[in-house]
Design goal:
With 249 residues, the protein is an alpha/beta fold. 38% of the residues lie in helices and 16% in strands. The protein has 2 domains: 2-135, 3-Layer(aba) Sandwich (Rossmann fold), CATH 3.40.50.300; 145-247, Rossmann fold, CATH 3.40.50. It is built from 10 helices and 8 strands. Helix 7 links the parallel strand 6 and strand 7 (172-178). The chain is elongated.
Length: 249
Amino acid sequence: MIIQVIGLPGSGKTSLSLELCNRLNAIHLNADEIRKDLSKDLGFSKEDRIKQARRMGALSRLLSKQNQIVVADFVCPTEQTREVFGQADFIIWVDRIEQSRYEDTNTIWEKPTKYDVQIKNGKTVDEEVEEVIHRCSLFDWKKPSTLMLGRYQPWHEGHEALYNEASKRTEQVLIGVRNTHKTSEKDPLSFNEVKKYITNFRGNSFVVKMPNITNIVYGRDVGYLIEKVELGKDIECISATNKRKEMGL
């Protein structure tokens, strides 16, 4: 997933982006930091700004393809630089100021016509982050959540029934997929394949690749509950082995 945070210099993009990364467990790509290293050969001409936008977009896509959430934080001042950056899943326009301290940026700045959230004055950073998370339906790593941990080779109706029960416990449900790919004949699916099957069942879900966890231990007063959910015999008799045979896996 790529979240692009754009706006004039000094509008508060980085403050918002840092807290957003904290709440989403995301990777922060800040243009100033990129310019210190990868783009230290670039200035602020029109041509160099286009090159910088292309590099920011390429880095974002590379990380996103590795199942990372990326927050790309930079001015991206024109429609051309936004087009060169490429497709973002969400665009956040931080629109707090009319002019920046850089006249050359003010001169070329074009107000975006496409965005998902427009951030104006009057809210704290925490309130702004809450707005972004709510309006973009993002998973908040700080809110109470229920974990479903399994192999899901493949995801089937039994898992779906368990998910529905899990969602009664907390608003957010995290599907943790154990990394068991090819560790046995019962584990033919890679993480990306498992994630695809889950998405086919229930659309946009929060799915995370986990180590091959085989034991869970805890001490007293750990602050969470481990619970076995009874789903009924008709659901519990669903066999992943039979599902794999039906699917030719």
